[in-house]
Amino acid sequence: MKSDENVEQGIIDKIGNIDAGRPNLGLLMPVFMYRFFFISVQEKLKERFGQSEADRVLFDAGFLAGNEFCETFISAEGDVKKFLVSLQTAFKEQRLGVLQLEDMDLNSLYFEISILEDVYCSGVEHSDRFVCSMCEGFLAGIFSFYFKRIFEAKELEAWTGTNPKSTFELKPKKIKKSS
Fold it and tell me: What's the CA gap between 51 and 63, in Å, rounded?
C-alpha cells in the first residue's frame, strides 16, 4: 500500500484482501461470470457513448491494467527473450490464456502475439468486427511498461470456431512530428 494519502492508489492496491474477504470461496471465479460482468459493462459503455468511445475507454482501461500487470507479475529484468518467457508464464499462471510468440523483429520492436484460451473471447463467435479492444490495451500497456515507450496493439485475427486463437500485432507508436 502507498503510505502518502495524496498518491493515488494503483489498481492492485484497490483489489483489497481477497483471502480475508472470501475465506470460503477463494480467489477464483468461473470465466462465465467474468464475461457476464465484463460484457454488461461493455454494453452499457456502448449504449451511453457509442462503439468507438466504448472501445477507447476499454483500450485505456486495458492499458492501465497492462502497465500494473507488467510491474507486478512479469520480470522486467534481463533481455527481451527473458521478458517474453516471463510474460508467457504470467499469462498461464494467472489463467489469462496461453500466449504464443508468432513473430518478432527486435530491430523494429515488432511482435506478433497469439493468445489461445483467452479469458475474454475464446469461444465467442465474432461478427464482422473484432471486439478485443481491452485486450489490445492490456498488451500495449505491458509492452509499453517493459520497453519504456508507448506501444500500439492491433488485433489481426479473432477467435473463431476454425481459428482457436486471437492474434495481435504490437509495435512502437510513431510520434507525429508537429509542423
Answer: 18
